[in-house]
Amino acid sequence: MLTMKKSLSPLLPIALVIVSLFAGAVTQIAQGQALDQKAIARIYKEVRHELVTLPFYGVFDNLAYKVDPDGTVILLGQVAVPTLKSDAENAVKKIEGVDKVVNNIEILPTSINDDRIRRAVYRAIYGNDVLSQYQLRAVPPIHIIVNNGRVTLEGVVARQMEKQIAGTQANTVNGVFSVTNNLQVEEQEKK
């Protein structure tokens, strides 16, 4: 027994240093120190998943977000259904590694005229032969945001031509004051 104690005693200081280092790492994580790139990428992926699977998220809503290195998620965008703002925040709060959620989602004003414009722009865009393919997705990629007669198109299309057609189609709707076309194009320009 005595020989065993003597052989472990030189290892004791090393073990204490390892435990101390581990405790320091846990303390850094608990104090909200910067996350590594892998953790941030995971959070981005999980936030996106949570937002696109919200029950009332649809084509007339635009949800965006940022993830800060300290674990703060900033929610952005606009929603037509008021409960979607709190639903988005509650879903994101549950993600591992998210320390704080800043909810900057704008609730669009209720308006019969805006509702009419939403439906008309939807028919104009997704009724177009070139763009109708996008209507078949669970959440169509072209989001139509209407605020007091002003239309903003958000989302992604495959080609520049589709972006232009969507903007033109939205401009043809009666009662639309302006159209802001923020659609992103996946196609890479050929050089």
Structure description:
This protein is α/β, with parallel strands linked by helices. The chain folds into 2 domains: 37-107, Histidine-containing Protein, Chain: A (2-Layer Sandwich); 112-185, Histidine-containing Protein, Chain: A, CATH 3.30.1340.30. It has 6 helices and 8 strands; from the N terminus they run αααββαββαββαββ. The strands form 2 sheets. Strands 1, 2, 3 and 4 form a 4-stranded mixed beta sheet that branches. Strands 5, 6, 7 and 8 form a 4-stranded mixed beta sheet that branches. The chain is globular. The N and C termini lie far apart (77 Å). Mean pLDDT is 85; it is low at 1-32.
Provide tags for this entry.
191 residues, alpha/beta, Histidine-containing Protein, Chain: A, 2 domains, four-stranded mixed beta sheet, 6 helices, globular, disordered N terminus
Low-confidence stretches: 1-32
CATH topology of the largest domain: Histidine-containing Protein, Chain: A
Structural class: alpha/beta
Oligomer: single chain
What is the general shape?
Answer: globular
As a percent range, the share of helical residues equals: 40-55%
Give the second-level CATH assignment, the architecture of the largest domain. Answer: 2-Layer Sandwich
Largest sheet: 4 strands, mixed
Q: Name the beta content range.
A: 15-25%
Q: Using the coordinates above, name the CATH class of the largest domain.
A: Alpha Beta
Overall tally of domains: 2
N→C terminal distance: 77 Å
Rg, alpha carbons:
25 Å
Output mean pLDDT: 85
